[in-house]
Amino acid sequence: MDIHLIEKIKGFLDPEEGKCLYDIAREASRRGPCLEIGSYCGKSTVYLGTACRENNAVLFSIDHHCGSEEQQPGESYFDPELFDRTTGRVNTLEFFRKTITMAQLDGTVVAMVCRSNVAARMWDTPLNLVFIDGGHSYEAVLGDYQSWAPHLKPGGYLLIHDIFEDPTKGGQAPYQVYHLALVSGRFRELPRVKTLGVLQKVG
User: Fold this and answer.
1) Angle at which helices 173-183 and 138-148 pack, to 10 degrees?
2) pLDDT tens digits, residue range 124-140?
């Protein structure tokens, strides 16, 4: 894994969280494909994709590449370098594609440029890992969970980023959906790494 490359990629993933993604994906991808929701410029994709490549597996990466709620103009995580003045919209796709090429993951990552619920509409491929890090509204996180958790095989991993119990430290939607998954009885809780929640499907 090219740490120097990862450090250059725009994104908000902590290195310890990224290492956790890599380690779990390395185990999960031995049994089949993995999927992430919310790739931004590709930092998480490199961690997950590198692990999948080692097992000759595939990582499906879903992002509409128009930025999440907090990345829009005037919001706290807006990056003017990612704003396309021609279309008047945030556009991270060009940065994402460059990342995938530099990381030599073109033969591993299947980029799906669309909304998560659209990709899920006709999906029927069982998955061994689902990483949720797309929109951070409750509706977005819940929709991602409801769309993709049913496709996890028993023993598969559900990873949810930005888990904050304390509302003064971050948004509550990922934590609420994480708790919802846990109390469903379909998942067991594994050790969390900073804000990265780790659940494993039972049964």
Assistant:
1) 40
2) 999 999 999 999 999 99
| Both structure tokens of 179 | 């708790």
As a whole number of angstroms, the distance between CA 132 and CA 158 comes to 8
Specify whether the CB–CB gap between 136 and 173 falls below 8 A: yes
3-state secondary structure (DSSP) of residue 75: coil
Give the helix ranges, DSSP H, for 12-67.
15-28, 43-54
Would you call 196 helix, strand, or coil by DSSP?
strand
Q: In the numeric block, which tokens belong to residue 195?
A: 């804000």
- Name the pTM for this structure: 0.94
136 is catalytic: yes
The separation between the first and the last C-alpha atoms of the chain, rounded to the nearest angstrom, is 33
What is residue 7's three-state secondary structure?
A: helix
Q: Are 163 and 127 in contact (CB under 8 A)?
A: no
Please state, in angstroms and rounded to a whole number, the distance separating the CA atoms of residues 64 and 85.
17
Structural domains for the chain = 3-67+95-201 (3.40.50.150)
Element at 164 (helix H, strand E): none
Catalytic residue among 4, 64, 65, 136: 136
For 84-117, what is each residue's pLDDT tens digit? Answer: 788 878 889 999 999 999 999 999 999 999 999 9
16 secondary structure, DSSP code: H
Contact 49, 105 (CB under 8 A): yes
Would you state the structure tokens that stand for residue 177, as one six-digit string? 């959906």
